[in-house]
Fold:
Amino acid sequence: MARLTVLTVPDPRLRIKAEPVAQVDEAVHQLMADLMETMYAEDGAGLAATQVGINKRVIVFDISEHLPHLPPMKMANPEIIWRSKETVIEAEACLSVPEQFANVKRHKSVRVRYLDEHNQSQELEGEDLLAKCLQHEIDHLDGIVYIDHLSTLKRQLILQKVQKLKKLFKL
Ligand SMILES: [Zn+2]
Structure:
């Protein structure tokens, strides 16, 4: 396993739309394991391959601290196949936008189809935190960062704060 470097805004690689994997093979297994290791090392709850500069539709997340019944999840080619009309506004944060958070409007519930680590097609439906996490991570695969859902003014403020932090800590 290897710990990878997490890209931060405004890195243009965060804007690349990721390609589907043909199947979950040994290389995708390795990527899933590396993403997990990196996510835990960075104290994050989720990570998409896009965030480490890998152009593949693979995400991992672990929100078992809040949803103990849900094991750490590894997904390839996740796709939202249903969204609730109801929306919620909740705070979000992201390893690619260090030390910042902001309220984002999301669908309250979503259903996702994906390939699991055994290359089996699965579906997972979630609401609230799980739905937020799925939408946030799948957004990354489409080159979208949560700050894109904010007003231009709020987004600029956050980008400026991140630039200052990067200078200060030479990130
Ligand atoms: Zn993120």
Observations:
- The helical segments are 26-41, 129-141, 152-169.
- Residues 152-169 form the longest helix (18 residues).
- Residues 36 and 151 are 31 Å apart (CA to CA).
- The chain has a mean pLDDT of 97.
